Amino acid sequence: MQRRYATTRALLGVLALSLIAAPSRAEDAIIQLPALAANISETSVSGISSGAYMAGQFQIAHSKIVSGAAIIAGGPYGCAESAFSDLMPGPGAAFLNLSKAINGCMLNALAVWGIPDVDLLVEKTKKLADTGRIDPLASLMEDRVYLFSGSNDRTVVPAIVASAYEFYKRLGLKEANLVYVSDKPAGHAFVTSDQGLACEDTAKPYVVDCDYDQAGEVLKHIYGNLAPRVETPGGTFIEFDQRPFFADEPNHGMEKRGVAYIPKSCAETTTCRVHIAFHGCAQNRTNTGETFIRESGYANWADNNAFIVLFPQASSSPINPQGCWDWWGYTGHDYLTREAPQIDIVFKMLGRLSQPRS
């Protein structure tokens, strides 16, 4: 009996090792992001919460190709960076930044100490541009930016979003190119015309029905007049392998898989633009499924207006259990620049979409 038990245990051990060593067929079968000859010189970005911060970071790092951004329940670029973070090695800097991020860049609890300091953030941004770590600020000046704060948002309070509006204005963007919407009774969530929880709610999946088509308002503000949205998207949501884009990034904080919505015309012959939609904390597929992806409304606007919609996915981990995008430096000191792992990974996804169709 003991010998039989030992033999069984050994066989189970070999089986376990083989399962670890060899990826499953489902893992092998995951498709690659297709080359679609996309026009990435007119890319736009949006995001909610941590995704709002990431949208601003991506826009400013790659302003040469970004036409506009939507900052939904987020604050100004670089807000979380502590004055002492450059002096701290490794994860120490991220720990310092996280405290400032929560108290100063979400709850506005450090306002009495002048945080967020918009003028200081503008100067930091100019220095990053002067040293070539982000694109020249001249390429940002014609961007159109949409900002949104729900009046029932207690997670990222309206004063923080207002400081993001001031940041763009003081950076030199035209006031006519900026819009700040703050009259909707939304909680901390992405807003739709007919999908999600009650408007004032703040709960998973962080999509709420406020009788307001936020996706449409975002895209129309950035691009101008658009053809009407479709009731039911006729394209395809594809789940693609994100791993080829972070093969050389040891600390990236990204999921294995992302999602893209591809209208039929974009898949076949049309040269399409790309909109990148960054989810919020606890809103990635691991935490909430695909509600944000499928119910935000971006896909409904894509078919008639030649948009590919890219939904990259950040991962949940012990250091980042809510699956937030990196806006406080958990991937390293370069998190605000073109060298930031997550910014570089998403930029590579754009590069893939822009390649000629095979």
Task: Show the helix and strand layout.
Elements: H1 2-21, H2 25-29, E1 43-48, H3 50-61, E2 66-72, H4 91-105, H5 118-130, E3 144-148, H6 158-171, E4 178-181, E5 190-192, E6 197-198, E7 207-209, H7 214-223, E8 236-241, E9 257-262, H8 264-268, E10 273-278, H9 285-288, H10 291-295, H11 298-302, E11 307-311, H12 341-354
Parallel strand pairs: 1-2, 1-10, 2-3, 3-4, 5-7, 6-7, 10-11
Antiparallel strand pairs: 8-9, 9-11
Helix pairs in contact: 5-6
Low-confidence stretches: 1-26
Mean pLDDT: 91
Radius of gyration: 21 Å
Q: In terms of structural class, how would the helical and strand content be classed?
A: alpha/beta
The fraction of residues in strands falls at 5-15%
Instruction: Output the helix-strand order.
Output: HHEHEHHEHEEEEHEEHEHHHEH
β-strand number: 11
Rounded to the nearest angstrom, the distance between the terminal CA atoms is 60 Å
| Count of runs of 4 or more consecutive helical residues | 12
Helix content: 25-40%
Main sheet record: 8 strands, mixed
* Strand arrangement in the largest pleated sheet: 4-3-2-1-10-11-9-8
Tertiary shape: globular
Q: What does it look like?
A:
The protein has 358 residues and is α/β, with parallel strands linked by helices. Helices cover 34% and strands 15% of the residues. The protein is built from twelve helices and eleven strands. The chain has helices spanning 2-21, 25-29, 50-61, 91-105, 118-130, 158-171, 214-223, 264-268, 285-288, 291-295, 298-302, 341-354; strands at residues 43-48, 66-72, 144-148, 178-181, 190-192, 197-198, 207-209, 236-241, 257-262, 273-278, 307-311. The strands form two sheets. It has an eight-stranded mixed beta sheet, sandwiched between helices. Strands 5-7-6 form a three-stranded parallel beta sheet. Helix 5 packs across helix 6. The longest helix has 20 residues, at 2-21. The protein is globular.
